[in-house]
Specification:
276 residues, alpha+beta, Arc Repressor Mutant, subunit A, Beta-Lactamase, 6-stranded antiparallel sheet, 3-stranded antiparallel sheet, 10 helices, disordered N terminus
Length: 276
């Protein structure tokens, strides 16, 4: 279940991620406007007023006033034929500084672009946001795109090599809590999910320094992922090589792909100040 920001009737209590915040200085109308903007995702890029209202548990009249204002400011665009709204280009102008401000992305981008050329496969960079795996950079080979990955897209952490790596290198004492927060969807699992087996898998990832994923998210597609660390020796991101499982896991190619991936991950980590 997605967690949403809720505002109480007295407009003084704000609930974010199920935690109550009492703060008279918080502008509740701004919170509500951002809540509405956040309703638009890669999975639901266009919405009607009624849909926005239902998702956010707000009345349509309130939503309409916010949506109308956001449209006038250029943050939303309305399709006159379908009456559906989507985010406007103005949103891009305020999100780009945040994207470019991610230090690990700035450091990693030229390295993953070079890696993509070397292995002739798509290379992706992801970070952990809560317990979600969020894509922050993608280097694609035009004729090797089998599955489009969008910047900002959230992937199921428990069913991706990137996500498992990001979880594996979190402090072990937090694993139980993090795993309990995962929205486990059985359709991504090849067998019944077991916390004990999952933790054993995370231990194995820490021991070998990388992991493989074969068809858990999309049948026929796989990836090899490795961690990226910063100057505090903490994991800050993960990179992977993704493509057709039949090609990635070819016996002759797998060792080369893994070596190149780890070499690039170590290079990014080194530029971030990591010392083994």
């Amino acid at each position: 279940m997605n967690k949403m920001t809720k505002i109480s009737q007295d407009n003084k209590k704000i609930f974010t991620n199920d935690e109550e915040i009492n703060d008279n200085y918080v502008v509740s109308s701004l919170v509500r406007g951002l809540q509405i903007l956040s309703t638009f995702t890669v999975a639901r890029p266009s919405l009607k007023v009624s849909e926005i209202a239902e998702i956010n548990n707000l009345d349509q009249a309130t939503v309409f006033r916010f949506v109308y204002t956001l449209e006038k400011l250029g943050y939303l665009i309305r399709d006159e034929e379908t009456k559906r709204y989507r985010q406007g280009l103005r949103m891009l102008t305020i999100s780009l500084p945040a994207r470019e401000g991610i230090i690990v992305r700035q450091v990693a981008l030229p390295i993953i672009l070079e890696l993509a050329k070397i292995v002739n496969e798509t290379v992706r960079l992801a970070v952990l946001d809560g317990v979600d795996t969020v894509m922050v950079a993608v280097a694609e080979i035009p004729d090797r795109i089998y599955f489009r990955t969008n910047i900002g897209e959230r992937l199921p952490t428990f069913a991706t090599a990137l996500g498992k790596v990001l979880l594996a290198y979190q402090p072990i004492e937090t694993w139980e809590h993090l795993i309990s927060q995962l929205n486990i969807t059985q359709k991504f699992m090849q067998s019944e999910f077991s916390i004990d087996l999952f933790k054993k898998e995370l231990v194995q990832i820490r021991q070998q320094g990388f992991t493989l994923q074969n068809g858990e998210l999309i049948v026929g597609l796989g990836s090899i992922a490795a961690p990226v660390f910063d100057h505090r020796n903490s994991i800050v991101a993960a990179i992977d090589i993704s493509g057709l499982s039949s090609q990635l896991f070819n016996e002759e190619l797998l060792k080369n792909f893994t070596n190149e991936l780890i070499k690039s991950a170590n290079k990014i980590s080194g530029e971030l100040g990591y010392h083994q």
